Automatic annotation (TrEMBL):
TM segment ranges: 175-198
Domain of life: Eukaryota
Keyword Membrane in annotation: yes
Protein name in the entry: Uncharacterized protein
Composition bias type Low complexity, residue spans: 135-159
Length: 231
């Protein structure tokens, strides 16, 4: 397929309609970091496009006893069944279907998963046309298939999602604000304690100056005003 008038259509494109049984997922090695998967036989993905040829690409895992078998019909005519050998490593961006040359007009491609309990992962479509303009997906001239000897999509049926780096700037600002608020509160509390101690001691000195007090020379007792006696 020539790259001069080629459009890559991601699995999230609104031109792709999914029946029940599909779920979005994705990983680092899928096109655009996304894919759609199903474990349900009979699940369909319908793709309406304008072009003269179409190709379908997907991911093949290794955690199942059967390969992901799928069928392809174009404009109501059944064209092909994809029944690959079971891979010994995860294969990303693999070619599942390639149409013959078509009239350059609108077509409807239906992709159907035919085996239950074996994950079928749909990644993207690649269409060629004599007059592709303003595509909904970014045109990509080259997409390289990838094979990795790593674990397959998880038991839940979804490939590992693309890690997302959590922004640290807002967290640091929040932490700094919290520390500053704690320090300010601590300083205010200490100042209040010193203020009350100062007021209390000042009051005590004032009372002593006003009423007076004396200690017996031998230190045995304190003689206070109001005629209090030592015993």
């Amino acid at each position: 397929m020539s790259d001069s008038n080629v459009e890559i259509v991601d699995d999230r494109d609104p031109r792709v309609k999914y029946s029940d049984g599909w779920a979005p997922s994705g990983g680092n090695h899928e096109f655009g970091g996304t894919t759609h998967g199903t474990f349900l036989a009979g699940s369909k993905a319908t793709f309406t496009f304008n072009g003269s040829s179409v190709e379908v690409y997907g991911t093949m895992g290794i955690d199942h006893k059967d390969p992901p078998v799928s069928t392809y019909s174009l404009d109501g005519s059944s064209l092909q069944t994809f029944n690959p050998p079971l891979p010994n490593a995860i294969q990303y961006q693999q070619l599942f279907f390639k149409s013959p040359t078509l009239d350059d007009k609108q077509h409807v491609l239906v992709v159907t998963s035919t085996i239950s309990e074996t994950a079928f992962w749909l990644d993207y479509f690649r269409i060629a046309s004599n007059s592709i303009s303003s595509p909904l997906s970014d045109p990509v001239s080259s997409v390289t298939p990838t094979t990795l000897s790593t674990s397959s999509p998880s038991v839940s049926g979804m490939p590992p999602t693309t890690p997302t780096n959590t922004p640290k700037l807002s967290i640091n600002r929040t932490l700094i604000a919290a520390i500053a608020g704690g320090v300010a509160g601590g300083v205010l509390l200490v100042l209040l304690v010193f203020f009350f101690v100062f007021c209390y001691r000042r009051k005590r000195r004032f009372q002593k100056a006003a009423f007076g007090s004396s200690t017996h020379p031998d230190g045995s007792c304190e003689h206070r005003v109001l005629n209090s006696a030592c015993h």
